[in-house]
Write a structure and sequence with these properties.
Elements lengths: L5 E7 L6 H9 L7 H6 L6 E5 L7 E6 L7 H8 L4 E7 L6 H12 L5 E6 L6 H15 L9 E3 L8 H14 L10 E10 L3 E7 L4 E3 L3 E5 L3 E10 L2 E3 L1 E3 L3 E6 L12 E4 L6 E10 L7 E2 L3 E6 L2 E9 L4 E2 L4 E12 L6 E6 L5 E9 L10 H10 L3 H12 L6 H8 L3 H13 L3 E3 L8 E3 H21 L6 E2 H9 L4 H13 L3 E4 L2 E4 L8 H17 L6 H8 L3 H14 L2 E5 L2 E4 H18 L4 H8 L3 H13 L3 E4 L2 E4 L4
Parallel strand pairs: 1-3, 1-4, 4-5, 5-6
Antiparallel strand pairs: 2-3, 7-8, 7-15, 8-14, 9-13, 10-11, 10-15, 11-12, 11-14, 16-21, 16-23, 17-20, 18-19, 18-22, 19-21, 22-23, 24-25, 26-28, 27-28, 29-30, 31-32
Helix pairs in contact: 3-4, 7-8, 8-9, 8-10, 9-10, 11-13, 14-16, 17-18, 18-19
Bound molecules: guanosine-5'-diphosphate (GDP) and magnesium ion (MG).
The site of guanosine-5'-diphosphate has 17 residues, from helix 1.
Length: 641
């Protein structure tokens, strides 16, 4: 992991409380750069300003956010990946509506560090300052800002600025490195064009590294492109990595193709989804419970999407409560498990809760299905728990370790280690002969095994007279639930368990006897006897059926049963021999070959005194089954394997 050489600090707080003025006073740079911002004296877009201090090893990057209630979604995007928060409260006005809302958003996004600046201290006396400081202290009690410095400052007079800068630098020393899965990912928070340079996207890198010349994709659309150039904190760089503010010049993409909320990432590394499974924490202060099917605004990464909340296993989530939910999105987005999100009610637009994504590409659940709840929680647990749960969620569909790493957003080696553990513990089953190795969860494997037994049982209920179930039928039944690659292993496990038995190419239930049907058995005997008596000059099927005076509905199953059992053998479409006749033919062929070294159709015809059609059918059958081999018009014994 590269050394953390900078700290990203996001401002937060009500409009006009002096956030932008404070950033400018600290850095000398005005974060408000748009003409409209200058004209209205108000922040509209995110502002990015760097603070370099030769005496301090890290660069501090300020993301200055708008405070206006109309732009809370911009604030949520700006705050989504900061290392620390600078909560700004004007000493004259004190806590205000967006002070509270921004603070809620910071908490929901899991920001873990920060401090409070009491701005405009030049406008108030000591008593007021102490009063506001006390109210702020009470307000942040129990949160990540509990016990954090509350510093009076004035952008106008410069009072308190050195202390604030020192406090920010000390905060910077406490920033923990972010976890890195090694796969490049950067949510886009800015898109702009640079004259003569092309389209540029900017954001904070959440994983891996990126360099000029790399091919990347822009999600959820999956637009593939090449990185023409990289800038880190405003200067050209070969590569950029985890946690750095980065601008990428993208080839062949127009500004119109790009927007805040998209994610630039390694090709194929993210799955666009219209559903997210998550744990939702509802803010204690919301006026009413959040109901199943409520329409909300979801802020995840730098994206905002309208979604419907599906409460898993319940009807509503009360204020202050927490519940597993599925968010059904009105357009796709991309995320990874562990990503934080915020939800705001559709109308009125206020922040009502947030939480952590658990499954970033889930299936649709039955709302009250038991395992779904329990499973979701495990996705947020240890690598082993999360990996096992992802396999469990894949059900009867096998997955590779790489598939799971991608879905979980965890590193390949970490997932491979967990897979090895689970395999050793018998929680996973490896499918044979697959590269890369594919696995099923043990529960899914057992379910497939039970399903196979049930299919064989059902088959015999429908075909009581049958002694065995043909492999082709068994395979077809299995493929309704399982993959072809799992069949052999599942079947072998059932045979090893003594549940199923194999007779040749057919399968049966252990201990089962074919139901005795005296009429069917008698018919089979008559058919068999007729073929045996006919010797080499066998009748056609229809001919024999008419002679025996039975319907096709009785005749065909009886004939097929004899063919399956090997008592009769079909040599050609219209030639069926009794097993004994075929043995006689084999003896004749063997004798001829012994004497002459080989045999032709004509020689066999003369020897057995039968028509050419039959002699040909016999020899072709022996060729096909590997008893003989044809060389031009002669047949010789095939080499024994
Ligand atoms: N007296 C005084 N005015 C300030 C101070 N900081 C900001 N202001 C004024 O407050 C107004 C809003 O400041 P601004 O930085 O745009 O607030 P923001 O909306 O939180 O970014 C501007 O007119 C500033 O000049 C301060 O420390 N003292
Ligand atoms: Mg501002």
């Amino acid at each position: 992991m590269p050394d953390l050489d900078h700290v990203i600090v996001g401002t937060a707080g009500h409009i006009d409380h002096g956030k932008s003025a404070l950033v400018k006073a600290l850095t000398g740079t005005d974060p408000d750069t748009l003409p409209e911002e200058k004209a209205r004296g108000m922040t509209i877009e995110l502002g990015f300003v760097f603070l370099d201090d030769p005496a301090y090893p890290k660069q501090i990057v300020f993301i200055d956010v708008p405070g206006h209630e109309k732009f809370v979604k911009t604030m949520a995007a700006g705050a989504s990946h900061v290392d620390a928060a600078l909560l700004v409260v004007a000493a004259d006005e004190g806590l205000a509506v967006q002070t509270r809302e921004h603070f809620d958003i910071l908490r929901l996004l899991g920001v873990g560090l920060g401090l409070v600046a009491l701005t405009k201290c030049d406008l108030v006396d000591e008593a007021r300052l102490a009063e506001v400081a006390a109210s702020v202290r009470a307000f942040v009690a129990g949160s990540f800002l509990d016990g954090a410095p509350i510093l009076p400052v004035s952008a106008l007079t410069g009072a308190g600025l050195p202390e604030l800068k020192a406090a920010l630098q000390s905060l910077g020393r406490r920033v923990q490195p972010r976890p890195d899965n090694g796969i490049f990912r950067m949510p886009i928070d800015r898109v702009f064009t640079v004259h003569g340079f092309g389209t540029v996207v900017a954001g904070t890198i959440l994983g891996g590294t990126v360099g000029a010349g790399d091919r990347v994709a822009v999600f959820p659309e999956g637009l593939e492109t090449r990185v023409r150039g990289v800038q880190v904190h405003g200067s050209k760089a070969d590569r950029s990595g985890l946690g750095r503010r980065t601008a990428l010049n993208l080839q062949d993409l127009a500004k119109e193709d790009l927007r805040r909320g998209q994610v630039a990432a390694a090709i194929g590394s993210l799955t666009p989804t219209s559903r997210l499974d998550a744990r939702l924490d509802v803010l204690a202060g919301v006026p009413r419970e959040i109901k199943h099917r409520d329409r909300v605004r979801l802020h995840v990464g730098t994206d905002e999407v309208i979604a419907r909340l599906s409460v898993i296993g319940g009807r509503a989530v009360a204020p202050g409560a927490s519940a597993p939910v599925q968010l059904v999105l009105e357009r796709p987005t991309v995320a990874l498990p562990g990503d934080r999100f915020v939800i705001r009610s559709f109308s009125p637009i206020v922040t009502i809760g947030g939480g952590r994504v658990l499954d970033a590409a889930p299936e649709k659940h039955k709302r009250f299905g038991g395992g779904v709840l329990e499973g979701l929680e495990k996705l947020g647990g240890s690598a082993r728990e999360a990996v096992e749960q992802m396999f469990a969620r894949a059900g009867e569909r096998s997955r590779t370790a790489a598939d799971i790493a991608l879905k979980l957003g965890r590193s390949g080696p970490e997932v491979e280690a967990a897979v090895a553990d689970l395999l050793a513990a018998g929680r996973l089953v490896a499918l044979p002969g697959e590269t890369p190795a594919r696995y099923l969860h043990r529960a899914a494997f057992d379910k497939l095994a039970e399903g196979l037994t049930a299919a064989v049982r059902a088959y015999f209920e429908k075909n009581p007279a049958r002694a065995g179930m043909p492999f082709s039928d068994l395979r077809a039944a299995f493929l309704e639930a399982g993959e072809a690659g799992a069949l052999k292993l599942v079947l072998e496990s059932r045979i090893a368990a003594g549940v199923l038995v194999r007779h040749g190419a057919e399968f049966g239930l252990a201990g089962r006897q074919a139901a005795a049907d005296p009429a069917a058995a008698a018919l089979r005997d008559r058919i068999s006897a007729a073929f045996r008596a006919a010797r080499f000059a066998v009748p056609l099927e229809d001919e024999l059926r008419t002679r025996l005076g039975v319907n096709p509905s009785a005749f065909n199953p009886a004939l097929n049963a004899l063919l399956r059992a090997g008592e009769l053998v079909r040599l050609a479409p219209k030639v069926i021999y009794h097993r004994d006749t075929l043995e006689a033919a084999r003896t004749a062929v063997a004798g001829l070959i012994e004497r002459h070294g080989s045999v032709t159709i004509a020689e066999l015809r003369d020897r057995l005194e039968l028509s050419r059609k039959y002699a040909q059918a016999i020899l072709e059958h022996f060729d096909r089954t590997g008893y003989t081999r044809r060389i031009e018009d002669r047949h010789v014994l095939a080499p024994r394997p």
